[in-house]
Amino acid sequence: GFIAEDDPEESQVTRAPVIAVMGHVDHGKTSLLDALRATDVAAGEAGGITQHIGAYQVQLKGGEKITFLDTPGHAAFSAMRSRGAEATDIVILVVAADDSVKPQTIEAIHHAKAAGTPIIVAVNKCDKPDANPQKVLTDLLQHEIVVEAMSGDVQSVNVSAKKREGLDELTEAINLQAELLDLKANPDRAAEGVVIESQVDKGRGPVATVLVRRGTLKRGDIVVAGSQWGRVRALVNERGQQLESAAPSVPAEILGLAGAPEPGEVFAVVENEARAREIADYRQRKERQAAGSVSGGGASLEQMMARLKQDQTQEMPLLVKADVQGSAEAIKQSLEKLGNDEVRARVVHAAPGGVNESDVLLAKSSGAPVFAFNVRANKQARELAEREGVEIRYYSVIYDVLDDVKNTMEGMLAPEKRENFIGYAEILEVFNITKVGKVAGCRVTEGVVKRGCGVRLLRNDTVLHEGHLKTLKRFKDEVPEVRAGTECGMAFENYDDLQKGDQIECFEVVEIARKLD
Ligand code: GDP
Fold it and tell me: Binding of GTP: at which residues (predicted)?
């Protein structure tokens, strides 16, 4: 999802949990959402909910806020998931105490488990004479939902949406789960989030309800949402109030888009109209293409060549990110000199800085692979690229960039040596140790770090150093490798400009020889 790991720790502020209510038909999802909505203490001052916008926020007596997705059925949840937008932090699984586990209950469990979203069980209709909450809990065991009363770790609360009983316990359970998840986001950045609902309104034009996941969305911002873009003319909440801005976890309707984006599509604020139009145009063109052909799809160098041959396009789109403006420009110019009568390289975007989500979206929509020169993609961008089939190639020598493109154009063999990133670690603290020098206390965040492999030091997604490890320690012992989730000590050979927050990338060079096409 949108876990803002590339935002600095100190910028992260606690945000409200986003809750989806799921369960079998008639088990009381709508009734429970209505009942929870009525617990809002802010409703008194500001007036209650006046319109359905697909999500709403309630404020509890203690001041905590909870955002509920108010979209019917599991369809919205699946749509968001299939587009990779993990908008939901916690699933409330509603099970009627007089009916127990039913097919859609099981489906909801599978959705939540597949998304890795924690579940809270709300056993509803406990007011009914034939209610049997105990049977619900036992039945859930078969689906690997083990509630706390049965020595598991899933919270379960008995409620009655009708009698409005057990709601405090339920919101307490949500707060507890939210605390465990330590949900945070940086509010001081360009907003990103997900589209929950959209429609074209007679009077107001296209209206999209969005949920901000990080950053703050402001009136006047230029946003791209799916293949639509526009300047945010107005932000409206579920009470029909106009907002100046929407912070993380705040849902709001936005007015001003040129068309209605699909639910589940991501939105992002971009720097200017030209950029917005560029991204939206590409996406629209891609949608039309996808509608007319079965091919569609990814943006790897090979796929792109195959497509070029198919539609006899004369241009080979490429996107370049580099450590400094100078190298971005140099690569762009050299690339655009490459080519022959059949195909020329066209650089759709060349800029300094790490590869971010906006780059990946642009690459995807223009069918361009990303060439990253001495820079890296952040985690969100890497995940997005993987989902969208966008290839990111990493280089540290300009000549290799040009060579790769030239060879691909000529249908030659791909480079024989390729790097595999095998792991990442983050520096938590730097220690100065006499006679040894600087040692970084790290946590391996992904994959595995091996003593003998190549390592790079990254700061702000930019490569500062490439070399080898001098030590790799667990506690006092030198170890051959350390896996994700584990803390360790590392020191570099002949390099000690280490800082808290730096990333360490671990790579292996593999030999490959494959024929293109
Ligand atoms: P959904 O299909 O899951 O959204 O279920 P609804 O909220 O529409 O509820 C289905 C039916 O169950 C309605 O007739 C509700 O009035 C009833 N219902 C919902 N919650 C309760 C409850 O806590 N107790 C009782 N007795 N009936 C309930």
Answer: 23-30, 70-74, 124-127
- Mutation test residue for ligand 1: of 22, 25, 26, the one with most atoms within 8 Å of CB: 26
Q: Which DSSP state fits 479?
A: -
Comparing CA positions, the residue from 411, 427, 425, 399 lying closest to residue 483 is: 425
Ligand 1 centroid distance, CA of 383 (Å): 39
Contacts for 158 with CB less than 8 Å, ≥ 6 apart = 97, 123, 126, 133, 166, 169
Instruction: State the binding site for GTP.
Output: 23-30, 70-74, 124-127
Is residue 300 very low, low, confident or very high in pLDDT (cuts 50, 70, 90)?
low
Query: Residues with Cβ within 6 A of ligand 1?
Result: 23, 25-31, 124-125, 127-128, 160-162
Report the atom number in ligand 1 closest to the C-alpha of 159: 23
Instruction: Take residue 425 and report the two structure tokens written for it.
Output: 């670690």
DSSP 8-class letter at 348? E
429-448: per-residue pLDDT in tens? 999 988 778 999 999 999 99
Dihedral angle over CA of 444, 447, 452, 454, nearest 10? -90
> Distance of CA 445 to CAs 154, 353, 377, Å?
26, 22, 15
Query: Which residue's CA lies nearest to atom 24 of ligand 1?
Result: 125
71, 197 in Cβ contact below 8 A? yes
The mean of the pLDDT values for the chain is: 85
Contact of 348 with 265, CB cutoff 8 Å: no
What ipTM did this prediction achieve? 0.99
Q: CA-CA distance, 41 to 24, in Å (whole number)?
A: 29
**Residues in Cβ contact with 138 at an 8 Å cutoff, skipping those fewer than 6 apart:** none
Q: What is the dihedral of CA 81, 111, 59, 149, to 10 degrees?
A: -160
Asked whether the CA dihedral 257, 259, 264, 270 is positive or negative, the reply is: negative
Q: Are 336 and 344 in contact (CB under 8 A)?
A: yes
Question: Whole-model pTM?
Answer: 0.59
**Model pLDDT for residues 336-393, shown as the tens digit of each residue:** 888 776 778 888 888 888 998 878 887 887 788 999 999 999 888 988 898 888 899 9
Among protein residues, the one whose CA lies closest to atom 10 of ligand 1? 26
Q: What stretches of 164-282 adopt beta strand conformation (E)? A: 184-185, 192-201, 205-214, 217-218, 222-225, 228-236, 242-243, 245-246, 251-257, 266-269
Q: Looking at this protein, which amino acid is placed at residue 99?
A: D
Residue 49 CA to ligand 1 centre (angstroms):
20
Neighbours of 494 (CB within 10 A): 9
Residue 27 DSSP one-character state: S
Q: How far apart are CA 179 and CA 272, in angstroms?
A: 37
Q: Which atom of ligand 1 is nearest to the CA of 163?
A: 23
